[in-house]
Amino acid sequence: MDTCTVETGLLKKKPCGHPAVTHCLNCEQPLCAQHAVPELTDTGRKSGKFLCKECEAAHREQKKSLAAVAKSAPPPAPPAKKPAAPAPGKDAPAQGKGSPSDDGAIDFTPGKK
Ligand SMILES: [Zn+2]
Ligand SMILES: [Zn+2]
Q: Ligand nearest 35 Cα, by number?
């Protein structure tokens, strides 16, 4: 017969030793009635399964972080409506091989001439 292996005691850790009534759903260690933590479903109801204290805490953290992620995630952006743009290039006259960034730089010519 299994005995509870949950370690108790703050300074000196020792196994609980009480007769186990169930096992941790996650790590499968034997748990006594005192150390079996009922697993709660998303709706807060008991699932009928049990976890040890550590696994239950980890379980809760995981759920919490999952919820936080779901909460902080931005809602999906609506699809951007693209205005029907006319085909570019046809109206603009081709300026040969000159650089298109010339305009605006005419007034200001630093040092070099
Ligand atoms: Zn466990
Ligand atoms: Zn115990």
A: 2
